[in-house]
Protein: Magnesium transporter protein 1
Amino acid sequence: MAEWSWLWRVSLMVVVALVVITPKTPAHRGQEKKILAEKVRQLTYWTKKNRVIRMNDIMFNHFVLETPRNYSVIVMLTALQKFRACLTCEHAAEEFQILADSWQGSRAFSNKVFFALVDFDESPDIFQMLQLMSVPNVLHFSAKRKFTPDDIYHLAERGITAQQMSKWVAERTKRRVVNTRTRQPTDYYYPFKLGISLALIGGLVYVLKWKRKFIFNTHLWAVLALGFVIPMISGHMWTHITEAPFAQSDTHTGRTYYIHEVSYFQLAAEMYIVSLFHVCMTLGMVLLDTAATSRMMVMKRKIISVSSICLFVIFFSWLLSLFRFKEPNYPFRILMD
Structure:
């Protein structure tokens, strides 16, 4: 396996070196300065709009491969189309965006380093030219036009986080990307869990202080049992094992998604949504049982029965709709699609 990895690195280095060092028609010195100034101005303008520049074939050839060039370009070559279902690509793109944002906000920001992204489905010729057979890949194109094996970022060895990539970028560009660490977006997952835990502990202490007979209360233990079972069947352990983020942001539109569209992956927020559906369905069944076994007035029992049935059916229908959203071939539905 190590031999194949070494062979791939050497072949990629040779291909990129040949592509980059291919001689171009020399231009007049004044014309070169004019072209270079225009290239830097255009790249700086795009960087201010979006820290990661999305490039096609023409842009890649003109701004990355062709001379003159007095700047370095960090390029991520990946496949982000939804039908590719490449979770590693999505995660790497998010970290790459964080890295570019951190560079923009650091003191070392200048027009000497730019970040770009190339999608396979938008520019397959670039992947064919570089003979790339897998994604994602991160390459460094230096202003010195000398491509070495160190200009290939090895995700499997170095890691996929923005913090780890920033160290490599600093090594290759001789510039400190950020002062101390990359600026990660706010994660509300653990503060939310801490708040829920503190609320439960506070409620338990309050009850223990005023009434201790609750220990023998069957309803309490039923609620505690449901409090354990519902998160488990809603995917809590799966999100914990996969270390799923609370939500997911689209690097292009800036929108935040709380439900992942792929059936084999689940976000932490999605687990809480499914848990809420299960809680409401359980509440509907408990109210229905209460209405059937209590000695309340007949009209009141009918109202509670109808309300509980509606509560169960509505939330069960939403749960099936969520399944159909993640798996379009899911055959069952109630009320809504």
Remarks:
- Residues 2-173 form a domain with the Glutaredoxin fold (CATH 3.40.30.10).
